[in-house]
Write a structure and sequence with these properties.
Elements (H helix, E strand, L loop, with lengths): L6 H7 L19 H5 L2 H4 L10 E2 L3 H5 L4 H5 L7 H4 L1 H7 L4 E4 L3 E16 L2 E19 L3 E13 L2 H10 L9 E3 L3 E15 L3 E8 L2 E2 L15 E10 L2 E17 L4 E15 L4 E12 L19 H7 L5 E12 L3 E9 L4 H6 L8 E9 L8 E10 L14 E2 L2 E2 L8 E12 L2 E14 L1 E4 L2 E3 L24 E17 L4 E14 L2 E14 L9
Antiparallel strand pairs: 1-9, 2-3, 3-4, 3-26, 4-5, 5-7, 6-7, 7-8, 8-10, 10-11, 11-12, 12-13, 13-14, 14-15, 15-16, 16-17, 17-20, 18-19, 20-21, 21-24, 22-23, 24-25, 25-26
Amino acid sequence: MKTLFHPLNLCFILLMGKTVTVSAQERYLPLNRNYTLAYEATLYRTDTNAHTAFRPFLSSTVNKYTHLDSCLSPSKREGKFFSRWIGRKLFSEHFLDVQNEDYTLYLDPLFEFRGTTWSENSKDLYYINTRGIQAGGTLGKGFSFYTSFYESQGYFPGYMDSLIRATRIVPGGGRIKRFYSTAFDYSIASGYISYSLPRYFNFQFGHDKVFIGDGYRSLLLSDHPFNYPFLKITTSFWKINYTNLYTVMQDMKIPVPEEESYIKKYASIHYLSVNLTNRFSIGLMEAIIWKSDSVRNRSVDINYLNPVIFLRPVEFSLNSPDNALMGINLRYTLLNNHVLYGQVMLDEFKLSEVKAGKGWWANKQAFQVGYKTFDLLNVSGFNFLTEFNYVRPYTYQHKSTLTAYSHNNTPLAHPLGANFYEWMAIINFKYRYWFAEAKTSIVKIGYDQRVSGNQFTNYGQNVLQSYLNHPMEYGNKIGQGVTTNQVNTEMRLWYLMNPKTNFIIESGVVNRRVKKEAGTNSSNFYFIGIRTALNNRYFDL
């Protein structure tokens, strides 16, 4: 931690970027669902040609179809207090905000203070205590930069505590340190620099995350895992948007004691999006995961750096031990504000075994179907989403964690891993700066069976297991292993204080019901908090 604040490192950090809401120059917008909801509907209109699946969005993409600042601040707060310095900083401006024709600069404190009571033990107060800072800005019309750092302590309800202790990772956060006997200390650092050439190209180098999809979950690449270093090149022309993503992942299962670190693995991901019409879009993804190999003197494999070649034939021609996956993302817009979407992920595919229907273990596929609509019943700000996700056992697993579709002990796609199906629905309503949301999910999942100690029979849920250890060749089906049915329901109400940092005051209630052969457990917890909500979080596991 000491080296992070070395003066040279601080100078470098201040040159890394992910800006929030400055109106003229081009920059990336926060990857937060509630933030995106303010302008998302305009991107799906049938009179647009926007590519909606690869996120976060560039501000220029949004401003091409609507006025971003007007979407984020739908009405002006009236009164003398809001025009004074303290009122502006609390409700409408960055803490430090420098605006110029050629450059912009901003700086803000970041924070979250949340308290939670859990019905199983009302004497305990579960909490999240986060402090941080962000800085960002633009130079000219093409260059932007951003950096942020959070330091957090958290004391979590039982189901989250068990997951954190097993993975040594807070979902979406960094590696944990023990804080007293029951809480955890963790941190998150983000940053990037971005440069856009006129009309066609954007280059982004940073330490952050991305999301591929039009729904709540992604079966291709999610923003659920912790941040990772990447180089992203985006090419846009005509009806085509093509993204090359080169990343460095980390395998926390295999430490390197002499370096006090973990073994690195690498991913090369191509995503080609084509808007066949303004209504219909198709996206094709291919990904290769490969490990660092000191024996073969292999780290970055130049064969996978070609930005315009199909990776699967290359991987096959090399007779490599690497993990290759292919995916499809589909989106069709009806009547301007009704959107059908879906995904298919192919980890392994053998048509004869799929047609046989005998539950071959290597039928490793996943699919998603979903529907969402904006301004439901012609009521402005009234939105609805429903989605079904289906992931067969052993999907995303590979021979070892070094080539599994994972990072920092976390799946790169759906946070539940594999061997499950999930149905969910979300309804939310926005009026001026007030928001209300209700969300429910129903899950059937098969967890691995504990044999002894840390030994488990691999039934295909945990992507960190090796598929070489599958117990059955045939007869594999969703829910095998420790069959578990989960129902999660959450209701939230929040008030948007400042759109620049998505500073909100929120309160809510969550009901979690889990049914196994051993019995049923039902719990409620209530929370209240304030936070700068710049990232998505997935606690509905």
